[in-house]
Amino acid sequence: MANYTAADIKALREKTAAGMMDVKHALDEADGDLAAAEEILRVKGQKGVTKREGRTTSNGLVAARAGDGVGTLVEVLCETDFVAKGERFGALADEVLAQAVSTRAADADSLLKSTLADGRSVQELLDDANATIGEKIEVKRVARLEGEHVVSYLHKTSPDLPAQIGVLVSTTGGEDTVARDVAMHVAAFAPSVLTREEVDAETVEHERRLAEATAKEEGKPEAALPKIVEGRVNGFFKDRVLLEQPFAKEPKKTVAKVLEEAGAQATGFVRFRVGA
């Protein structure tokens, strides 16, 4: 029987994020040699990369960095929450984020093709991590936001997991405090656009038709329909438009009103939620 301990198993799992049985088999094959077992896991992992391509990545994290009028947000995904909360995966995400910042990447494709200091592409970095960790790992989304002021906010939906929601908000005027409050609001209320003008006209018209048909089905008076329809369409905007949403900390005021009172104006935002 190979000479290794439970501590060796734990150390190798933490280092590689490989499964318990995979680690045990590698240690058996390596006769307890940790370095050799790690290499075995890596080789076997490379063989499984192609097989893992079709797997679902529903776990992971979002990472962000903001400063000097620029913010970058990345979503890095894996298969299980065990890997997602591991130090190795967190370090990988930090490396991916740093590369996105340094290359000014604004989308996943350009980031994946970019070259790291060691000569590998980011895609090759992920493939190597895929092999050693034993799960499919991918960069799903990347966003870059510029403005007079840009702040970031990361939110954990569970204390046991890394950040699952990430937000960037750009503003002009005012203090970073109000921008951060708005970023926290975006994390909680998930608006889809900044202003109602950004909503597709066909979508608005569909909502208008739906509101009218619903009102008629409810037996509302014909004369009252225009006002009812307009109210329901405005409600649709209120749910989706950041500036028209009731502010999280002061629901009697809209986000736009809070910004106005702070002498600020929102110019853009991005929100990622893992797997969404």
UniProtKB/TrEMBL annotation:
**Listed Gene3D superfamilies:** 1.10.286.20, DNA helicase RuvA subunit, C-terminal domain, Elongation factor Ts, dimerisation domain
| Cellular component terms per the entry's GO annotation | cytoplasm
Source taxon at top rank: Bacteria
- SUPFAM superfamilies according to UniProt: Elongation factor Ts (EF-Ts), dimerisation domain, UBA-like
Output the Gene Ontology terms for molecular function.
Answer: translation elongation factor activity
Record region (Involved in Mg(2+) ion dislocation from EF-Tu): 80-83
Which Pfam families does its entry note?
Answer: EF_TS (PF00889)
Q: What is its main location?
A: cytoplasm
Compartment(s): Cytoplasm
Annotated keywords: Cytoplasm, Elongation factor, Protein biosynthesis
Q: Where is the Translation elongation factor EFTs/EF1B dimerisation domain?
A: 71-275
User: Per the similarity annotation, which family is this?
Assistant: Belongs to the EF-Ts family.
Q: What does this protein do?
A: Associates with the EF-Tu.GDP complex and induces the exchange of GDP to GTP. It remains bound to the aminoacyl-tRNA.EF-Tu.GTP complex up to the GTP hydrolysis stage on the ribosome.
* Name the record gives this protein: Elongation factor Ts
Species name? Phycicoccus endophyticus
Gene name on record? tsf
